[in-house]
């Protein structure tokens, strides 16, 4: 115990030292968040750029459009869960996240993971033809027709388009994603002050890189996007409730367990 006491500022062990007081600490914090972002995004931006010519053909779009509502929902739920799993991995490597209680980690992921998937979507989005990389090719809104939730799909695509317009760097996306996750306003948090300490350090990190990039005006725009994210996710939950009511069997037995655990 004496040993522990003599190293009170180990940033990984001591939650109280998370707030980065020196520039070196904030650089380390940012570097570590950027590293975990890089290691948990399935594709690199250059790879996605090189894949842009792969667009679904008319026939392939037809195949998606002729799927039944529950078939298409199940398909998308699997794809989304896959993406969420990477976000969970990302979260675990945000300095301070693993020091939160299990309950608080889950509470943050319940609302935050879907929001981060939507933030990450801008990397997978081509604004030239409004398509998103889905199942190995670029797909437009019409591909998701059989989900029967056109308003959600349109809103998600609009959001991706607006996010792309900000032209964020990978570092900015990484820090913004972390800030979206570590949010003291989420319901059901046990230890809000502990979450707040982690949130402040991430906020400090984002402010630092935005300042370094000479883009101060970005902070305001990013906070605005956070409000849009919140409304998109409640729309997603609303659609999921609607779907589960109409297709209880699919929702119950064919949706991935993680999808049910986080959103149901
Ligand atoms: C987002 C970024 C991730 C990779 C990824 C995987 C699945 C994609 C998702 C991205 C974007 C949104 C997406 C999703 C599959 C289905 C979903 C295209 C590219 C659309 C919007 C349909 C949502 C349907 C729900 C209502 C079930 O790193």
**Helix segment count?**
12
Q: Strand share of the residues?
A: under 5%
**Low-confidence region ranges:** 1-16
Order of helices and strands: HHHHHHEEEHHHHHH
Attached small molecules:
cholesterol
Q: What is the mean predicted local confidence, pLDDT?
A: 89
- The structural class is mainly alpha
Cα separation of the termini: 43 Å
Largest beta sheet: what is the strand line-up? 1-2-3
> How many strands, what sense, and barrel or not for the largest sheet?
3 strands, antiparallel
Q: Can you put this structure into words, describing what you see?
A:
This protein has 264 residues and is mostly helical. Helix content is 65%, strand content 3%. The protein has twelve helices and three strands. A three-stranded antiparallel sheet has the order 1-2-3, with helices on one face. A hairpin with a 4-residue loop joins strand 1 and strand 2. Helix 6 (102-120) packs antiparallel against helix 8, helix 8 (170-181) runs antiparallel to helix 9 and helix 10 packs across helix 11. The radius of gyration is 20 Å and the shape is globular. The termini are far apart. It binds cholesterol (CLR). Cholesterol binds next to helix 5, helix 6, strand 2, helix 7 and helix 10.
